[in-house]
Fold this sequence. Notes:
Blueprint lengths: L2 H11 L10 H12 L4 E6 L6 E7 L7 E6 L18 E3 L2 E3 L3 H19 L7 E6 L9 H9 L7 E4 L7 E5 L1 E10 L3 E2 L9 H22 L12 E9 L5 E2 L2 E10 L5 H17 L9 E10 L2 E2 L5 H10 L4 E4 L5 H8 L3 E3 L14 E3 H18 L1
Parallel strand pairs: 3-6, 3-7, 7-17, 8-16
Antiparallel strand pairs: 1-2, 2-6, 4-5, 5-18, 8-15, 9-13, 9-14, 10-12, 11-13
Amino acid sequence: MTTRSLEILADLIAFPTVSREQNRDLIDYLQRFLVGLGASLTLYPDRKGSKANLFATIGPLDRPGVMLSGHTDVVPVDGQSWNSDPFRLRQDNGNYYGRGAADMKGFLACALNAAERAAARRLTTPLHLAFSYDEEIGCVGVRSMIDGLALTQLRPLFCIIGEPTSMQVATGHKGKMALVAQCTGHAAHSALAPSGLNAIHLASDFITALRRRQSLIAETGRRDEAYEVPYSTIHVGVIQGGVALNIVPSDCRLDFEIRTLGDDNGAAILASIQQDADAIADAERGRFPAAAITLTQVNEYPGLAMPADDPAVAIAQSLAGANHLVKLAFGAEAGLFHQRLGIPTVVCGPGSMDQGHKPDEYVSAEQLGLCDRMLDRLLDQLA
């Protein structure tokens, strides 16, 4: 690991880029850093101007290059007990602690260090850098940058997303749909409960149906043993309903998600869930015409399913010195780059998600060193 990567990581950690906050201070830092290297820059701000994506190229602009990509936002530290300031890099026994150290400012630091070295060389193939916002809330921010890249004539040859994989090369990650189920019943006094339709009971019936669907998927659905959970999953995360104990509630809301294998059919799973919701509501409409379970999709990003024999995979393995391939339970922006732009994309970065999102998040010096060496090999090829 180079001292320079650590210096840059300390700078990046000091920006508290929690997704609910702005990231422009960090983006301004990146702009100054990259302008100083002579990079060509394109900014993709959000409508308020408080957040932005940044795309940069070092080297020739008339040909496609290799893209290193990562998100600038981090998850909150609220309610977590840290042993030090989460936004000040701390070293202890070969580990470097701070919010985002693993997920994923460690990779961003190594990428910027590589950019400095790239600027000092004569590249025949360019190095692209893509920095996004609001990945942690559903891969939301990167889409404007993808839309912008879709309008350009040149696309990167392939992309490495630096999510923490312990420097193993990942060819797959799960996709996700985030949904709301609004259950509508009929209010009544609880002393006359049978005269009403309890929306919480509707929600309970719907949850039972979701659990049946999950069991069916686990038993008979598509499987991929490369994943820690080798099938698509359905999960209810939030339930809200009721006003007072003596009122039969007329409304209840569920927030739930579907996480699919990279090559599974999420739309088909959702269609089966919609059938279940309709059947539950239809059974009540004879007495309560307004009975309903309405499903609304609030966000979606695709999974990644890169063929193991794609040349980009072999190149990434060679660069990382990785002997085997993995697939990731968590989501990433890789599926969007691959699906929307057709860019061969893998995920490989320093640290482990076992440390991400937790108090005292850290990345090890060993992992940062492996990432620096991977990017050294990449620069040799670009030159």
